[in-house]
């Protein structure tokens, strides 16, 4: 190896090697460094490994180190840490297996060619040992990340699948990851392992920062486990192992939390499962999973379209349609006014076609659809027919219908103000029947007003349905502030904390951008009623909640743990919908009228 500068305390220093100006000499020195590093026991080995970690994160597509043996080196270092506990406990070597697995994952996340090189270098066996939990959950996290990347590519998936225990380990980890991180790290501040704290915060934070990062890493551990399982789910031979009822029923609750919103998590895996006939059969047999998919499909979740895909595939499959149609029809009907969502350019038309074909399929079938579902679908088909007829209707006739709907709506507003909530709801229904289908803005108001009535009448399912229809008609999609708030309250009444939380947060975001004096945030202050609901649902939807309850709710000190780590007195929420209706801007009927613009919608 090239002679290093005299002021460097480490012979063969990697950083000095990288300063070599001659490219061929530098490559030769790096090659020698990678070959010799696993057999050395010098202090300070973690320094070049952490430097390589930074390089891999910054330049994951750079082939230089791939060609010089970095995968062989990292694999050997992981084995060394697993087999030589004395070496692992010396100096700062405890960090090395983590960095080594992370480096493998970074260099294989984009390039199939690099993944193939990694497999030939023998990285899978030591990664599997880390996945088993031979060290700690911190190393499990980066091992499942790396294996997930290797399993993504057609050429390297078989090498991962050859280790038969990988799928089972990933399923176990997805199911238990939150509890593992809570009980092994989050729960007891004074027992936290030092190097875990350093890795989580990079030495930049205290207990509160450690706790926040632990929640983020726990979510990643679960989501990356689901990503690995997802690679197996595309292969029919693995579906029987994946589609066990006790695992499927947990998937809708695996949502990544607010700290990992970029992962489709459980619903993403369900979508892959529902792409196969075998998978749809398993999902259709679990009513709670189907119901959860309906909730996600109606929600303002970024992965709403994935749940919609699942529902449509279940209805289109003749073997599962009769099992789910009575449960999912109302959800699909509520979404029938959406135009673009995900890959769908005309989602509403797709929904209408699918439900119409379902009706025709079961017209003379032994597997019948309930009368209520038939009536709902017939009503949808009639509304679509009315929309077509309106295109040829004289403008004068449309104006008459608009004026009549406005009169009836104002009557509903008057009844609402006088406390006759049921009467107001009936008037809004009458106004909807009169209002032209193309008058989208007015229909948004009518649906949202009726949703408020249903809230006060303690009919949360009806309120969710109407608020969803208003949000689907609104442009942009899912951004009508008052409907978001009303649906958030309805979800709260049903105990659907995640859905309520997402709507409440979106409501606050919309208020911050609104020109409506009733909604705009005064002095950039979040309304008290919205802040209370968000705090409540953040406690209830907290990723560690179940683990905390199971392990006695012991929590670390500080404001964050007061909010999330213990049971709070929620008695003030028993009548939240009623009290907030009186205090917030949505507690009275809306009187938004833009008839002139509606003619151009």
UniProtKB/TrEMBL annotation:
Domain ARM repeat N-terminal plant: 6-244
Organism per entry: Oryza nivara
Any single Pfam family the record assigns to this protein: ARM_7
Compositionally biased spans, kind Acidic residues: 567-593
Protein name from the UniProt record: ARM repeat N-terminal plant domain-containing protein
Organism superkingdom: Eukaryota
Signal peptide per UniProt: none
Stretches for region Disordered: 560-601
């Amino acid at each position: 190896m090239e002679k290093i500068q005299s002021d460097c305390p480490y012979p063969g220093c990697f950083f000095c090697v990288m300063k070599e100006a001659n490219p061929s000499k530098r490559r030769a020195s790096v090659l020698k460094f990678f070959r010799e590093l696993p057999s050395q026991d010098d202090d300070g080995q973690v320094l070049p490994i952490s430097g390589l970690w930074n390089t891999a994160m910054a330049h994951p597509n750079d082939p230089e180190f791939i060609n010089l043996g970095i995968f062989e080196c990292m694999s050997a270092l992981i084995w060394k840490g697993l087999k030589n506990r004395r070496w692992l406990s010396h100096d700062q070597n405890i960090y090395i297996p983590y960095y080594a697995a992370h480096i493998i994952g970074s260099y294989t996340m984009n390039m199939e060619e690099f993944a193939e090189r990694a497999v030939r270098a023998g990285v899978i066996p030591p990664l599997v040992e880390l996945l088993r939990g031979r060290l700690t959950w911190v190393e499990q996290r980066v091992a499942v990340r790396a294996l997930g990347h290797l399993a993504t590519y057609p050429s390297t998936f078989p090498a991962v699948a050859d280790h038969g225990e990988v799928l089972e380990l990933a399923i176990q980890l997805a199911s238990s990851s939150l509890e593992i991180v809570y009980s092994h790290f989050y729960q007891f501040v004074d027992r936290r392992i030092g190097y875990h704290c350093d890795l989580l915060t990079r030495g930049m934070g205290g207990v509160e920062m450690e706790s926040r990062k632990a929640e983020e890493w726990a979510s990643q551990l679960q989501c990356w486990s689901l990503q690995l399982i997802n690679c197996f789910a595309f292969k029919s031979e693995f579906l029987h192992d994946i589609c066990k009822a006790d695992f499927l029923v947990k998937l809708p609750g695996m949502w990544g939390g607010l700290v990992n919103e970029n992962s489709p998590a459980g619903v993403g895996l369900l979508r892959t499962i529902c792409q196969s006939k075998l998978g749809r059969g398993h999902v259709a047999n679990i009513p709670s999973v189907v119901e959860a998919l309906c909730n996600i499909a109606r929600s303002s979740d970024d992965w709403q379209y994935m749940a919609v895909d699942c529902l449509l595939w279940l209805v289109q499959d003749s073997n599962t349609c009769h099992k789910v149609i009575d449960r999912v029809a109302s959800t699909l009907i509520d979404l029938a006014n959406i135009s673009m969502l995900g890959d769908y350019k005309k989602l509403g038309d797709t929904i209408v076609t699918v439900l119409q074909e379902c009706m025709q399929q079961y017209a003379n079938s032994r597997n019948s659809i309930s009368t209520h579902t038939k009536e709902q679908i017939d009503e949808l088909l009639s509304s679509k027919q009315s929309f077509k007829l309106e295109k040829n209707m004289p403008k004068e006739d449309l104006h008459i219908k608009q004026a009549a709907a406005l009169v009836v709506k104002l009557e509903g507003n008057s009844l609402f103000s006088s406390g006759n909530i049921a009467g107001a709801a009936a008037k809004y229904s009458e106004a909807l029947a009169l209002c032209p289908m193309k008058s989208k803005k007015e229909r948004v108001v009518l649906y949202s007003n009726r949703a408020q009535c249903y809230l006060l009448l303690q009919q949360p399912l009806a309120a969710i349905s109407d608020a969803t229809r208003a949000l689907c008609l609104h442009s942009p999609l899912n951004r009508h502030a008052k409907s978001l708030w009303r649906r958030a309250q309805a979800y709260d009444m049903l105990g659907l904390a995640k859905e309520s939380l997402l709507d409440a947060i979106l409501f606050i975001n919309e208020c911050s951008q609104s020109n409506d004096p009733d909604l705009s945030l005064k002095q950039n202050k979040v309304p008290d009623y919205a802040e209370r609901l968000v705090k409540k649902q953040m406690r209830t939807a907290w990723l560690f909640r179940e683990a905390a309850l199971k392990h006695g709710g012991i929590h670390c000190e500080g404001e964050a743990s007061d909010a999330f780590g213990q049971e709070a007195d929620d008695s003030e929420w028993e009548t939240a919908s009623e009290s907030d209706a009186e205090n917030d801007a949505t507690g009275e009927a809306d009187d938004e009228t833009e008839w002139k613009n509606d003619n151009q919608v």
